[in-house]
């Protein structure tokens, strides 16, 4: 055993596991290169099971029902690759639907529901959708999913937007509402428009109706919904019939 192995092996196993359990996946990978002892700890189920549970809590509840399940590290890596591949399909889908830099609300909701069916976790959204290089419409899909599906605290989502340097990115949401009836006459259809940043959606209470409109889609009194990139040179209005 070399000097490095001897030094690391002098740490009590419980202490070493506690240290490893407090690290992120990239840091764990770096730690595994330090010595044979750390490499063995890196492959331990004791380290990877909590990481899996934290990232995919819903999926974890299904898997943990099998008391004989082992190999959390390998399963974590496999799941990560599957999430990455499926995210690519969502990115492609949204890209095809928003060639004119606008997106139908039903396509937006399809992307959000896709994340739900995949059991996307908050960490997945941060790693795979909260990227500055991605279309802001994809950032919005991730934001909507975090707030309306995962029901995460707005402060946590705001922090993630800021750390990924996308909080100031802007979208324009427009929608038409069917005119109200007044003494037997229908008033003119109501037009609403909101131009706001992603972080606004997590902080401004008076703009909470925007996420509500996106979450409901074009139903009942809402006739049209358009989501577009601010400063878009072209816009696409797409009617959606009420459900």
Automatic annotation (TrEMBL):
F-box domain segment(s): 11-49
Fetch the Pfam families from UniProt.
F-box (PF00646)
SUPFAM superfamilies cross-referenced by the UniProt entry? F-box domain (SSF81383)
Q: Report the InterPro entries cross-referenced here.
A: F-box-like_dom_sf (IPR036047), F-box_dom (IPR001810), FBXO4 (IPR039588)
Per its record, how is this protein called by name? F-box domain-containing protein
Annotated source species: Hibiscus sabdariffa
């Amino acid at each position: 055993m070399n000097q490095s192995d001897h030094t690391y092996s002098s740490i009590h196993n419980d202490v070493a596991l506690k240290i490893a359990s407090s690290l992120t996946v990239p840091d764990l990978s770096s730690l595994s290169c330090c010595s044979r002892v750390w490499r063995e700890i890196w492959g331990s189920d004791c380290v990877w099971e909590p990481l899996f549970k934290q990232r995919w809590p819903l999926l974890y509840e299904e898997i943990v029902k099998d008391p004989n399940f082992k190999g959390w590290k390998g399963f974590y890596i496999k799941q990560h690759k599957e999430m990455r591949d499926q995210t690519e399909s969502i990115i492609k889908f949204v890209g095809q639907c928003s060639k004119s830099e606008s997106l139908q609300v039903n396509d937006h909701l399809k992307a959000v529901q896709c994340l739900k069916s995949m059991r996307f976790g908050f960490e997945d959204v941060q790693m795979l959708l909260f990227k500055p290089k991605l279309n802001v419409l994809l950032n919005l899909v991730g934001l909507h999913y975090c707030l309306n599906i995962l029901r995460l605290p707005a402060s946590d989502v705001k922090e993630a937007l800021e750390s990924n340097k996308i909080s100031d990115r802007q979208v324009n949401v427009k929608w038409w509402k069917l005119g109200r009836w007044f003494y037997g006459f229908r008033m003119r259809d109501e037009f609403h428009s909101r131009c706001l940043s992603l972080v606004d959606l997590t902080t401004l209470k008076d703009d909470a109706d925007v996420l509500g409109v996106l979450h409901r889609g074009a139903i009942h009194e809402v006739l049209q919904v358009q989501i577009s990139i601010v400063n878009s040179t072209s816009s696409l209005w797409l009617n959606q019939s009420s459900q």
